[in-house]
Structures are given as structure tokens and as C-alpha cells.
Amino acid sequence: MFYFLFKYLETFDFPGAGMFQYISFRSAMTVIASLSISMLFGKKIIQFLQKKQIGEVVRNLGLEGQYNKSGTPSMGGIIILASILIPVLLFADITNVYIILMLITTVWLGFIGFLDDYIKIFKKHKEGLAGRFKITGQIILGLVVGLTLYFSDSVVIREYIPVETTAVEHLASQDVKTEIKDQKSTKTTIPFLKNQEFDYTSLIAFLGEKKHKWVWLVFVIAVIFIITAVSNGVNLTDGLDGLAAGTTAISGTTLGILAYVSGNVIYANYLNIMYIPYTGELMIYASAMIGATIGFLWYNSYPAQVFMGDTGSLALGGILAVFAIMIRKELLIPILCGIFLIENLSVVIQVSYFKYTRKKFGKGKRVFLMAPLHHHYQKKGYTEPKIVTRFWIVGIILAVITIVTLKIR
């Protein structure tokens, strides 16, 4: 809203109106607004949740300090969602296709998470929303995001296309002539490799010329898988005070930097990376998420005064996934979101190995003392703040490695 207001005022030479055209300025304003909303209004939302007795129902898992969490307000993801959506609507260009998709992602997954929390807390069904409904919701979002990114004319990358020359022109100059062209593409970035990009069409190269006709299906399936995996990964990570919020803030900061350089033609050319027009606006969204998660940590750090619940964790995971896909950095997710990946894998490994050993030996065995992984360390006697801090440190290391991939190729 402010973006369009000051863009209009700029036509009248209104003092300072031109500053709103700079992504850096609007990003700074977005962080301030997001932090202010989460910290100033967060306490009132927590008091409201306490008044409504919207507290966490704790199961007996044999973990130290577990019962101290009983009754702590949940559904705090409402604070995060409000702190993201309001600043974005104020400072971002909401006609930008990438911003529109991010808004849809946040609202849609936030709604699914809200339903899950509502069923757990108000209906007293500890399982919450059935898993098939969660997956269905994530698939629907994947379809919307994937199809939009594939078919929208606004989603392009800038490439240097070789220009056909005559034999005389070719003999006169040994340089290959190229022209700059914005065009549709299913290419994405391969980390650590110079001038190497992965094209989804290569997955169905056996179809010959028909591969260009069916590549949209491969791309959409990949989008659905990534959204589902990362969203559920953040959801599983949300088990200790400040763990999910802190690691998400680290990942969000990194994605914001990648979006800024990918959407800036000067930096993209300097770093020799894919230039994606209009993605620089995503820096506004990243700033809102950073401010929202850090502001939420004010109340969620140990000992937590509120939990984000599925309302926040599902939405944050979806934001990270869709964000990475938009800036063509989804192959960096295993590095950047390594914490969420290992949390996911720890559950898969634990369940699979237990079922396998029970079937083979008649008694199930476990790889970890408890899954997800952060509970394994709790069982080993590590205190909750130490586990969370060390996971943050690992997250920072992974974020640095992700950024370094821009130069190491």
C-alpha cells in the first residue's frame, strides 16, 4: 500500500517518496514493522490465548522439563503470520507474481496449521488434523505454485542467446554473437558447478521432442515434493523452545540474500549466476519473515511463553520451500535446510528400522533414543537451551556454506 502511495506521490516531487522505490529501504522498513508487530502485539495475543485457555497438551515422553510446558499457550503462529502479512501488504509490490504466490502460501498453510491446532486444543483430539488432509493441502498448494511458475509470462530468466551469423560475418569475427533475452525456462541452479544449470527436461530426455510438452508435469511434481518435505521438516523441528523459529530466521536471511543478488542484474552478472527479473522484491518478504521469527523468539525462547504450533511451523516451512523454488535455488535446500532435513530423516530412519527389525526379529529396535533428533539429545541428558543453541550454530554454518556456493564453483 505504501509502495503505491509513495510511487504516486513521487510524480508530484514529494520529498522522500523516491526512497520507497529502493528494495533496500523497504526491506529495512519491513524488518522494523515486523519486529514491532510481533513484539508489541505478541504479548496481547499471548494473554488472549491464556484467557481462552489455549494451552499445550503434553504427552508423557519421559523428557526432562516436559511437564513445565503443560498449559503454555499454543497457536502462537498467529503472531508470526500477522507479523509477516501486514508489513508485506504495506511495503511490497503486491502485483508482483512472486509476492502473490508467497502470500497464498503463507495464508493457505497457515490455515491448514490453524485447523490442526484447533482440533488438538478445542476438540481435544491429540492427533489433530488427519495426515491425509495435511498432505492434500500441501499438494494443492504445490499445484498452484508449480503451474503458476511454469505458465505465468511474468516468470522468466534472462539468458544470452547465440545469434545466427552469415559465413562472412563468422570469418570476420571469431567471437560468438549473443543477444539478451528474457524467456521461459525450467532451469535451476546446480551448486558448486560453474556455468552448470539443471533443466527439468533432462529427467524425461527419453521422450525426445515430447519432453518439452510434458516437462511441466515433472516440474509440478518436484514442487509438490519440495513443499511437502520442507513444510513437514519445520513442523517436526518445532519441538524445543526457540528451535524452529531460530533456524527458520537463519534460513530466511540466507534466502533473502540470494533473492537480492539473483534479482539484481549487476550482482548476478558479477557473480555469474542466473538473473531472474522481479525476484528482488522477494527480499521484502524475507525481511518480514526475519522480523517475525526474531520477534517471536522474544516470547518463544527458553522458557517459552508461547508455542507457534502447526499454525506457524507449516507456514514457515512452506515459505522457505516456495521461496527457494522461485529463485531457482531448490537444489541448495539440502544444505541450507539441513537441520530440517536431518530432523525429517531421523524420523524416517527410526520408524523404518523399527518396522524392519520387528518384522525380521519379532522385536522392534531403534537407531536413536528418540526421534526427531533433538529429542535424542534430550534423552542423552543435554539441556534444552544447549541443544537449541548448538542447532542454531549448525544452521549458521550451513547458511554460510550456502552463500559461499555463489563463489565456489
If you had to describe this structure to a student in words, what would you say it looks like?
With 409 residues, this protein is mainly alpha-helical. The protein has one domain. It has 16 helices and four strands. The chain has helices at residues 2-10, 23-40, 42-51, 77-91, 97-121, 131-151, 167-172, 211-237, 243-262, 265-271, 282-300, 309-326, 333-336, 338-361, 373-379, 384-404; strands at 157-162, 178-183, 187-189, 197-199. The strands form two sheets. It has a two-stranded antiparallel sheet with strand order 1-2. A hairpin with a 7-residue loop joins β3 (187-189) and β4 (197-199). The relative contact order is 0.15. The mean pLDDT is 88.
Summarize the model shown.
The protein is mostly helical. It contains 16 helices and four strands. It has helices at residues 2-10, 23-40, 42-51, 77-91, 97-121, 131-151, 167-172, 211-237, 243-262, 265-271, 282-300, 309-326, 333-336, 338-361, 373-379, 384-404, and strands at residues 157-162, 178-183, 187-189, 197-199.
Distance between the termini: 41 Å
Order of strands, main sheet, comes to: 1-2
What structural class results from the helix and strand content?
mainly alpha
Number of domains: 1
Percentage of residues assigned to helices: 55-70%
Shape: globular
Q: Mean of residue pLDDT?
A: 88
Number of helices: 16
Sketch the major β-sheet: 2 strands, antiparallel
Kindly estimate the percentage of residues that lie in beta strands according to DSSP.
under 5%
Order of helices and strands: HHHHHHEHEEEHHHHHHHHH
Number of strands: 4
> How large, in whole angstroms, is the Cα Rg?
23 Å
Return residue spans where pLDDT drops below 50 for at least 5 consecutive residues: none
